[in-house]
Each structure stands twice: as C-alpha cells, then as structure tokens.
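Page 42, continued from yesterday. The earlier attempt failed because a stray header line got pasted into the input along with the sequence. Redoing it now with the clean sequence only.
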Amino acid sequence: MNDPLVVPTGGIADAALAILHKTVDKQIAEHSLRSFYFARLTAQQEGLLTDAAYDEGLLFAATVMHDLGLGTLAGGNARFEVEGADLAATLLAEHGVPDGDISRVWEAIALHSSLGLADRMGLLTYLTHKGVFTDGGRFTELSPELQEPVRLAYPRSPDDRSLQMAIIKHARKSPKAAPPFSIAAELLRQAGG
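This time it went through. Structure tokens are written below.
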C-alpha cells in the first residue's frame, strides 16, 4: 500500500463521510477515520487484503460510521452502538447496498465495542473492532512506524476524553442507552450517574 491515508471514493464513501462530519464532533470524526486506517493496516499486516471476505468499501462504511450513535441523529433509545448501526444501515439502504452487506456493516458497528465477541465474528466485524481499539490503545500489534502517518495526519491528545464524554452524554438520555454491563453503563457509573 503506497499511501496509507488514501480513502475509498464513490457515493457510499462520500455519504458516510458527510454524515460523519455533519453529526459528530471533530474528535470523534477523527477517531473514526483513524479507526479505518488502523483496521486497513491490520488487514495489511495480517495478510488479509486479498481475503475473499475483505471489502474495503464496507470496512470504510463500518469504521467511519461506527460512532454515529454518539452524534446528533441518535435519540438515546438504545445503546450507542445499536443506534449507530441502525443509522448506518439506513444510509446504506438509501444508497442501494445489498441487504447482506448492510447486515455485515450493522453487525460490525453494533459489536465494535464487544470485547471477546467482535474478534470471533466475520472479518468485517473483526477488523472494525481492531481498528477502533487500536486507536484507543488497547491493541498494540501495529508497529509505531505503520501508525505514524495516521497519528501525524490526525493527532490525538493523550488527555482527550471526548469519546468517553460523548458516551456518557448519550447514556444519560434514557435507561435503554446504558443497559447493565455495557460500556456506557460502566462509564456512567464511573462518572457518578
């Protein structure tokens, strides 16, 4: 891969970027983009770019839209992962994406924060999960040299808590937004409700 910062183009990619930038804060949008780059770099490092199940357009859609549930379109009627998956599915359906591919993206988004589950699902869910948590610092398999162009293009302050604060804000919208044992419920508990 020559340029690690190149992104897919076309109607779906453009629509995913547009909804991302229109509905979430800049820090979350940049986290979503870093998640895509790290997911693709993970696929490259693990030799998965030529796997029959690898679809860069769907990976872009899943990673870029994985936190739509923390944006202005989410009502707090479900956990943020599910609301984001529903919003992404609606956008993909509006662009004529086949139902099977919509289901794969929905699953990848809905399970992206499910430690111990996401990495056992299909390739799209696995890579989305790896990309998201590589950006969060949980996974360190990607070398600093591979990560460097992404981190330089989209720097993240070490003390940035915008993602956690957005999850807490969403969790406070309704009890359904922070079901027991979810990341949202835990962050809300740590914040004192």
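Notes: Residues 69 and 183 are 13 Å apart (CA to CA).
Reminder to self: strip header lines before submitting.
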